[in-house]
Design a protein that fits this description.
355 residues; alpha+beta; three-stranded antiparallel sheet
Length: 355
């Protein structure tokens, strides 16, 4: 089943990522940036990303945008990085590297005739959190860092900030037709139940919640730590899902990735949400629906990843990296009441540990 391409969000997921040869990339990087180096591919969902390494060890990230990605969205992501760098210079985010002509991004016509936007970012050293042993201290460091990032983005605006993106927990109802593509009957019933919960308990309240530009993809693959200090955040990467949306969706999305790895699936998320709240307090209405939105993140992960894996089998392993955990989390959350799940997620806040 194919998502309707009535929006830029659907189009970006329906359009294959660029596949430019490494030799051609090296030539363009040398010509446009004056950087001679060796390119190697980095994993990505929609764009083609490469690490460019010079002989002296300096490294950069070269990004070739998906052909369906609008120039305004690319400009939005660049502007956000520049804003964060100015508002909170200590946050470990990539810095935008200009071309020799002083541009933050440029169009490139490739040998096959295709035209795409390219940009360069600084390379951040560190180990992806997914490669480390998870600890309460690490989860709390991640949450504090995310809250600081959200504070830095507060007040930032851009004409493309409200662009259409399917990876938006506050718009999960747009994936309703994807329920039909879930073949396994138990999984389909599970997905239908959580879609119903979203429509009934979350959707009616969203307009009354505070919104701002959020990272929207703060998970174990996109946060780096120092190898010798796994509780110290050394990098925040992948701002490709950046958008203007309810702030609580940011917290729920990030907390959802901490359900695995503990005997109690709410232990990690509770530590994360509690630490976030200590730096940037959630309002009462946000606390009321954050658990529902955490489930919604797992729901859209399951629906989008299964569809994209079937469409792009060559990238199946990368696309499905969160899929098993998403279904497991939904099954776990289906076994308890909404109120019980909410109370367990908010245990650190309501027990006063963050006061």
């Amino acid at each position: 089943m194919m998502l309707k391409e009535h929006s830029s969000g659907a189009a970006a997921l329906n359009t294959a990522a660029p596949a430019v040869s490494l030799s051609e990339i090296q030539s363009v990087v040398a010509a446009r940036y004056g950087i001679e180096g060796t390119a190697r591919l980095l994993t990505a969902e929609r764009d083609q990303n490469c690490c460019i390494e010079q002989g002296n060890g300096n490294r950069y990230v070269f990004k070739i945008s998906n052909p369906s990605e609008s120039a305004s969205v690319v400009d939005f992501q660049i502007a956000a990085l520049n804003h964060i760098a100015g508002a909170s210079p200590d946050l470990p985010i990539p810095r935008v590297v200009p071309t020799l002509a002083g541009h933050s991004c440029e169009n490139v016509t490739w040998r096959d005739g295709s035209i795409t936007l390219v940009r360069m970012l600084s390379y951040l050293d560190g180990v992806q959190i997914k490669e480390t042993e998870r600890t309460p201290g690490q989860r709390r460091s991640m949450a504090t860092c995310l809250a600081q990032l959200n504070l830095a983005l507060h007040g930032f605006s851009h004409s493309a900030a409200s662009h259409d993106l399917l990876w938006n927990v506050s718009a999960a109802h747009r994936l309703n037709e994807q329920l039909e593509s879930v073949i396994h009957p138990d999984r389909r019933r599970l997905a239908e139940e959580f879609m119903r919960r979203f429509k009934q308990h979350v959707l009616p309240s969203l307009l009354a919640l505070r919104s701002q530009v959020i990272h929207n993809d703060f998970h174990l693959y996109n946060v780096l730590v120092a190898p010798e200090e796994p509780d110290r955040i050394s990098g925040i990467i992948d701002f490709g899902d950046l958008l203007y949306a309810p702030l609580v969706g940011e917290v729920a999305t990030a907390a959802a990735f901490h359900m695995a790895g503990c005997a109690d699936p709410f232990e990690g998320p509770a530590e994360f949400v509690g630490a976030y709240h200590r730096t940037l307090a959630l309002t009462e209405p946000e606390q009321e629906i954050v658990t529902d939105l955490m489930a919604t993140r797992h729901l859209i992960t399951a629906l989008i990843s299964e569809w994209r894996a079937a469409r792009y089998p060559h990238n199946r392993d990368y696309i499905l990296r969160h899929n098993p955990a998403a279904w497991e989390a939904l099954a776990q959350m289906a076994e308890i009441s909404r109120n019980n799940a909410r109370d367990r997620l908010l245990s650190e806040i309501r027990n006063g540990r963050n006061k």
